[in-house]
Every structure is written in structure tokens, then in C-alpha cells.
Amino acid sequence: MISIICPFYNSENHIMRTCKSIYSQKNFNSKIEVIYIDDGSTDKSLTLVHDEIVNNKNDKIHSKVISTKHRGPGHARNIGIISAKYDYISFLDSDDIWYSDKISILESEIIENPRYNLFVHDENYIRLNGDSKTITHGLFHGALPSFLYKRNILSTSAVTIEKGLIINRGFFDECLQSSQDYELWLRLSKDLKIFKINKVLGEYHEHEGSITSKYYLYRFIDQVRIATRYRHYVTVRTYIYKLLKIVLSKQWVYGLKGILTGTKSHNH
User: Fold this and answer.
1) CATH number where 208 lies
2) C-alpha angle 8/9/13, rounded to 5°?
3) Residue 257: its pLDDT value, please?
4) CA dist., res. 183 & res. 189, Å (int)
5) Contact at 8 Å (CB) between 77 and 161?
6) Within the chain, where are the H helices?
7) What is the mean pLDDT of each run of 10 residues along the chain (268 residues)?
8) Count of CB atoms within 10 A of residue 43's CB?
9) What is the pLDDT of residues 212-227, one digit of tens each?
10) Domain count of the chain?
11) Is the separation of the CB atoms in 122 and 135 below 8 Å?
12) pLDDT in the model for residue 173
């Protein structure tokens, strides 16, 4: 029923935790597959993933690893989607985890709510300093395209979506350096039928250097591109407001600091 796509790049410090959260899933009935995509790692990530697969043999969970040259998370996720054999795709970034009841709850909701094509749950957001807060996903009112344009209500590691919907609309945009997931949700928004699962089923971990980390300056540029690309979803006034909000954000400062010091920051 579900193909789990987990891209990773130089994630040796946290990939084992992510893998263990997959293999700790309980009380689900259908078979699932896990597709790990090594995005050209140069550390021990690939070895650690192979070790976790060997140490967690399970008839209900089939695992495989695909290795590619380093081209970013969008490319890695696209490879996973193409390789997936089941009708639903769940994404899990290499610095995030799921709670052990995630698949069983998701499985039940998919079966009981067949008219929906995207399922999303809430997450605990864990900061670098250990502080945490609960992030609510999937709530909106009015037309989804315009609402999503104003505010991203979806988180990649909390989303499960029909594979055919992505394939028919062109996959993740690999030309973007960041925010590929947000661009995809906007592109699909007119066809999305969102079912919100009112439970916290995972953790989103802030982590420097993770697959979701980019220079803030790159993120700034990508957000302007995305806002312009989908400006027809909203009024001219809303488009201008969004551009001003991006321009006046602190991302300029973080971006310039990253370029000058060679450091990276999280893009949440």
C-alpha cells in the first residue's frame, strides 16, 4: 500500500535514528517498502543504512537502497517516486522520525477515506537546543491554492500522497535549491483533497547540514521564484505583500552570513 521514500546525504549522525523509527512500526497489516536514496554521501551514512536493513529483517517491510550522484533532495525524491511500486508515497527526511503507530493509523485512514489523495498529520518540532513545540499541519479555509500560497500548511515528513498525482504533474522541481516540496504542493493544490489526521505522529528535527538545510540566501531566491510562478493564485495585492514579506525577512542577513562564513542554517 505505502512506499516510504527516505533520501539522505552525509547523515551519519542521525540516519540510524530515522531508520529505527521506520522498523519500529507496529500493528499495520499491509506490506510496505522503504526506498533509501543515497544522494552521494561521503561519510558512513550508506554503511549505517545497510546495517540497519540487515539488522531489521521484516516480512512486511521490504527495503532497498539506491545510490546517486549528489544532486539534492528533489532529485533524490524523484528517483524514489519512480522506483516506488505502491500507490501511496510517504516521505521521511533523514533527520526526522515517526512514532511507532504512524503506519497503522495512516493505513486505517487511507482505507476509510478513499476520496482523499493526501494525508497529513501533526509533528513535534525539535530545535537544536532540545526545545520542542507541536506544529499543526493541514488546516485551511477557502480555496486551497490561495490559502497555501499565503501559508505552507504541509510538512514533507508528515505527508502521504497518491503516487499518480505526482507523476501526472511533473515531480519535484530539481532546479530549485530549496523549497521544492512547497513548490510541488502549490503546483498540485488545485487537485489536492487533504485529509488531516489530528494526531502527532512524528518529529521534525532541526539539524545543521541536513538534507533540508540550505543557505538562507538560496532559499530567499527560490521563494521569490515560487511566489512569482504562482502569482495567478492570488490578487496582485497579495502577491506584492508576499514579495515584501520575503524581501524584508531576515533571510538576507542569514544568507550573507552563510556566504561569508561558509556555514549553513536550517531552513524551517
Assistant:
1) 3.90.550.10
2) 85
3) 61
4) 10
5) no
6) 15-23, 45-55, 73-83, 102-112, 144-150, 163-169, 180-188, 216-229, 236-247, 251-261
7) 96 96 96 96 97 93 96 95 98 96 98 98 92 96 97 97 96 93 98 98 77 63 96 98 87 58 46
8) 14
9) 444 577 888 899 999 9
10) 2
11) yes
12) 97
Instruction: Tell me the residue type at 23.
Output: Y
Q: For residues 185 and 201, state if they share a domain.
A: yes
Q: Please tell me the distance from the alpha carbon of residue 19 to that of residue 6, in angstroms, as a whole number.
A: 9
If you search the block for the grid coordinates 493505513, which residue do you land on?
107
**Total residues found in the chain within this entry:** 268
The pLDDT of residue 205 is 84
**Residues 191 and 144 both lie in one domain:** yes
Contact by Cβ (8 Å): 90, 160:
yes
Beta partners for residue 68, in sequence order: 39
User: What is the domain range of residue 224?
Assistant: 216-266
pTM of the model: 0.90
Which residues make Cβ contacts (< 8 Å) with residue 188, sequence separation at least 6? 161, 165, 166, 169
Strand partners, 196: 120
In angstroms, the Cα distances linking 101 to 22, 26, 106, 184 are 10, 6, 8, 27
Cβ neighbours around 142 below 10 Å, total: 8
